[in-house]
């Protein structure tokens, strides 16, 4: 399928699910790109993976009762994030231990709940791997509102989030509410994960949160530029991945992730300052003056 044919399908009334899937994928890429920058800088990719597990019981309950999956997943993710933030205050337990307990338990609860519903196998596959054909109009509205809300919160509290991300003790010494900011960030990650699950799936959603931000991290040293590049990388991955999956009949979520991974590998090799080629060239330039200095005069 040519790109022109793909564009024609996007405007085909009989394929109305396709532009909805693209819109949700682009919105998800935008919000995950911004929130993912905090995740990458803070080294909390494990939390993003755990949140993806935590939203599952909410998705399962919403599916069983016929409710909105996005809202159901958001409620479950937020409740689990609050539980982790509260229990992590006990100094006898490390934060990663509490996360491991609660988020895996939440995922197990989701499996138990959804196993009690008709059509268990098909619905489970949709949750885990995504489905471009199953995004209703109301979900598009919810995702759009959530995206605007998350980006607004990130903009208003950007300095505080950066301070806590880079140095928690200094942030606490400055009088910043570290616990409240941690909780807010957990909740933001939870909502970002939920709005991405319908397109890319529960298992693969971490890639949309981490891979574009990691790619942008290789391309720039400035956080502001990184937060602009990450959504662009994620959006490009969503567009190209959806095009390839629609053209060749491939799983949408997996294709988007592979395209994003391809962008990451290109940046890892070709980034102007931090890429493999630039680092190798820098070492060679560094060796040359040292060799010239060590060479005795004739």
From TrEMBL:
The chain crosses the membrane at residues 21-41, 61-87, 99-120, 140-157, 178-197, 203-220, 227-246, 252-271. It is found in: Cell membrane; Membrane. Signal peptide: none annotated. It is a multi-pass membrane protein. It holds the Pfam family ABC-3. It comes from the Bacteria. Belongs to the ABC-3 integral membrane protein family. This is Anchored repeat-type ABC transporter permease subunit. It comes from Streptomyces triticirhizae.
